[in-house]
UniProtKB/TrEMBL annotation, chain A:
PROSITE patterns (UniProt xref): PROKAR_LIPOPROTEIN
Protein's organism: Agromyces seonyuensis
Protein name as catalogued: Extracellular solute-binding protein
InterPro entries: Bact_solute-bd_prot1, SBP
Signal sequence region: 1-18
The UniProt record lists the keyword Transport: no
Keywords: Signal
Automatic annotation (TrEMBL), chain B:
Protein name: ABC transporter permease subunit
Protein family per UniProt: Belongs to the binding-protein-dependent transport system permease family.
Membrane topology reported for the UniProt record: Multi-pass membrane protein
Protein's organism: Agromyces seonyuensis
A single cellular component GO annotation: plasma membrane
InterPro entries: MetI-like, MetI-like_sf, UgpAE/MalFG_permease
UniProt KW keywords: Cell membrane, Membrane, Transmembrane, Transmembrane helix, Transport
GO terms for biological process, alphabetical: transmembrane transport
Domain ABC transmembrane type-1: 88-302
Compositional bias ranges of the Low complexity kind: 1-13
Length: 449, 317
């Protein structure tokens, strides 16, 4: 009996200790020794101590960039693990964080999911780890995504400023010589293309929230906001958003835009077969399309998105991710160096852009002739990278997300997706979506502005 | 069914007990040791998690404010959750439409194969059984392609003969399409269970029926089907449980037709989405528990009614 009680006491003490350690770890922010930025000495020391880091990412072949890092810091051993892409990745990340063990040191996180990990205080503030100095090296809006305030939650890896990829041959056939400059032109072109070729000028993925939110972003609509604590702003049914919605409702109801679900086999074949004469997509789209529609090589061109008012040059963003260091990492300095190196080191960043085809957020790459002067045969010799590099400067800088984007997207599918697929009134669906989001946020204890 | 052997066993027991010796006891200890590993796994992998999720379902966890005891709040919410009821209605549709079709077809195939009149019955048996060997994931993806409105072979054939494009993946039709997939997948499985039962019917019964002048159909109806009723009941119970637990099909069809498959399409899928997308783990636990309870009740009712019927028949005969 005595023996038993002792073990119980020891166990209790153990858990208490673990609890304090855990709370110590997950206090968010916090630098190495509780104050002040990390010094170069500390970094040097950390980087010459044998350390093993775990890095969760789904970027294919990122081992190549990690190898560069390991070459520079032979003492650091990085284990790259792919635990799934998108949702499964975040689910596993959350489970590991909640369990208090098994979480990686560095993890890939898409911009829109950063707030949810800020909310759970799972990310390390990299400002004190030398990341604050990197601000000017990145495209402004991309930096705002990882650092909305003084803290730096992650290092930008790639971005998806939006543009218009279109089939030049089909548009020419419809008598359109120039890519549509405004959305009005686009609607007119849609009619011409449908009448003379039978193709849809493009497809609006019924359940593709990312694309629609990108259009909102371009139109200056600010549907979401988060103060980093307990207050959120939800305004997906603003007048601006409804204008965008009405535009698409019109085109869809006139059967000028298809609403097939995207990124499935049907849709790939639609792109390859000319069912769609274009794709309003992001900077990662051009290379993706090349792999999907090989047979139509040379017939595609890239252009900026059509504009809401003539003469404007505004775009939105769709996709892209960053690398964040988890607050629970036992080697925060080395982990921060890894996140920085992969996405900031010139060789590594260049390699990400030219071999993994991640569209770079880094100014040095965006202005490097080796990157932007590349001519693409698929796009008739056009310098597609240069075009998107220019577009990346025109993305609205202040766009925020909610700390529960998983729910936002799934709710989009439920409320907006079904309406878009049924060619219904998208603006009205925005109201339903808004209601769902507000009631979820309130249920979860947020203050909704 | 099992009454006679049980009676025999109880009668034999007192004699056994008197003969209990050390060697018997040793044997018994050994037996317990043998099943110990199973019970350990059973306890840690099933019972404990079950209680844990039951425990979870009494809490409420918010993104802001953390975890709190909520009593039965999650259950109350579930009972008033139209999405949950909607998913249960779809299961009901499965039970009333898909399960009978599948089992009747399986029974027909089993009887046809058992009659020995079909040529190449071995091959046919294998072919019918094959879909069951195809993983549900592959099956659903394959059907997703077959159903495709633009490039799917069914749609192309239909267009070629001027029937227009059949829409399998629209919100209104997806349930039927899903029933078709599940039927295709599990017909073979159910057929094998019934076929195995048919093979074990003693040949004397057939001879007797033949002497009485019964034809093949009469034999099937009056001899074979009553003889394999326990096997049929087994497939019914399996199908009921399977219908409540549909997960792969909605989850995979969701990637193909996300506009048609809502998050709450099937109760099990709903619980999954609640836990991992809405991050409402506690509510998901409550839904899962209610679902488990419901499965137990429905299965029990089915079994009970069957037993009653059996008893009634025995009394009549």
């Amino acid at each position: 009996m005595k023996q038993k009680r002792k073990t119980a006491a020891a166990l209790l003490a153990g858990t208490a200790l673990a609890a304090t350690v855990l709370t110590g770890c997950t206090s968010g922010g916090g630098s190495a020794d509780g104050g002040g930025p990390v010094t170069q000495e500390q970094i040097d020391e950390a980087m010459s101590t044998p350390t093993t880091l775990t890095f969760w990412t789904w970027v294919p072949d990122i081992d190549q960039e990690v190898a560069l890092f390991e070459q520079k810091y032979p003492e650091i051993d990085v284990k790259v693990e792919n635990v799934g892409q998108g949702l499964p990745h975040y689910q596993k990340l959350r489970s590991a964080i909640e369990a208090g063990e098994g979480a990686p040191d560095v993890a890939q996180i898409e911009y829109q999911y950063i707030p949810s990990f800020v909310l759970s205080e799972s990310l390390l503030d990299l400002a004190d780890y030398g990341a604050a100095d990197l601000e000017d090296d990145y495209v402004g809006w991309a930096w705002n995504q990882v650092s909305p305030g003084d803290e730096v939650w992650a290092i930008p890896q790639d971005i998806g400023p939006m543009g218009n990829l279109y089939r030049e041959d089909l548009l020419t056939q419809a008598g359109i010589a120039e890519p549509p400059a405004t959305w009005d032109d686009y609607a007119a072109a849609a009619k011409a293309v449908k009448d003379s070729t039978g193709s849809y000028i493009s497809n609006l993925g019924a359940t593709q929230a990312g694309q629609m939110i990108g259009f909102f972003w371009q139109a200056g609509v600010k549907p979401f906001g988060y103060d980093g604590a307990e207050t959120v702003k939800i305004d997906v049914n603003s007048d601006g958003a409804k204008e965008v919605a009405d535009y698409w409702t019109g085109l869809i109801q006139d059967d000028l835009i298809s609403t097939d679900v995207d990124f499935n086999d049907q849709w790939y074949q639609g792109l390859a077969s000319g069912k769609y004469a274009g794709w309003l997509t992001a900077a990662w789209g051009p290379v993706f399309l090349q792999g999907t529609a090989e047979g139509t090589s040379g017939q595609w061109r890239a252009a900026p998105l059509p504009q809401w008012s003539a003469g404007d040059e505004v775009s939105g963003n769709w996709g892209g991710s960053s690398d964040a260091v988890l607050a629970s990492s036992e080697n925060p300095i080395a982990a921060a160096e890894l996140a920085k190196f992969i996405n900031h080191d010139e060789e590594s960043a260049m390699q990400l852009a030219t071999q993994q085809f991640l569209f770079p957020p880094q100014q040095s790459v965006l202005s490097d002739p080796a990157f932007i002067d590349q001519e693409s045969e698929f796009y008739g010799g056009q310098q597609v990278n240069k075009l998107f590099a220019e577009i990346s400067e025109t993305v609205d800088t202040d766009f925020e997300w909610l700390p529960f984007m998983d729910y936002v997207y799934s709710s989009y599918e439920e409320t907006m997706g079904t309406v878009i697929a049924d060619k219904g009134d998208i603006a009205a669906a925005l109201d339903t979506w808004q209601d769902q989001l507000v009631s979820y946020a309130e249920d979860q204890g947020f203050t909704v502005e | 069914m099992t009454h006679t052997p049980t009676a025999a066993r109880t009668a034999a027991r007192p004699a056994e007990r008197r003969r209990t010796s050390t060697s018997k006891r040793k044997q018994r200890t050994a037996a317990y040791l043998f099943i110990l590993p199973f019970f350990l796994v059973f306890l840690t992998m099933l019972v404990v998690p079950l209680f844990y999720s039951g425990w979870l379902s009494f809490f409420e966890s918010k993104l802001i404010g953390g975890e709190q005891f909520a009593g039965l709040a999650n259950y109350v919410r579930a009972l008033g959750d139209s999405a949950f009821w909607g998913s249960l209605l779809r299961v009901l549709a499965f039970l009333l439409i898909q399960v009978p079709i599948m089992l009747i077809l399986a029974l027909c195939f089993a009887l046809a194969l058992d009659s020995g009149r079909a040529r190449g019955s071995r091959t046919v048996r294998l072919l019918i059984f094959m879909p069951y060997a195809v993983p549900a994931v592959v099956a659903t993806l394959m059907w997703g392609y077959l159903y495709g409105p633009d490039f799917g072979p069914i749609a192309q054939i239909a267009r070629a003969v001027g029937l227009g494009t059949p829409e399998f993946l629209t919100p209104g039709n997806i349930l039927g399409s899903m029933m078709n997939i599940v039927t295709w997948e599990f017909i073979g499985y159910n057929m094998i269970i019934m076929y195995a039962a048919l093979r074990s019917i003693p040949a004397e019964l057939y001879e007797a029926a033949e002497i009485d002048g019964a034809g093949q159909f009469r034999v099937a109806w009056s001899v074979k089907i009553p003889a394999i009723r326990p096997a049929i009941m087994l497939t019914v119970i399996f199908s009921i449980i399977g219908s409540f637990q549909l997960f792969n099909e909605p989850s995979l069809l969701n990637t193909i037709a996300p506009d048609a498959i809502t998050n709450s399409f099937m109760p099990n899928y709903y619980a999954y989405n609640l836990a991992f997308i809405n991050q409402e783990l506690n509510y998901a636990a409550a839904i899962a528990f209610l679902l488990g309870l419901l499965i137990a009740i429905v299965s029990y009712i089915v079994q009970l009614s069957e037993q009653r019927r059996e008893r009634r028949e025995r009394r009549l005969s």
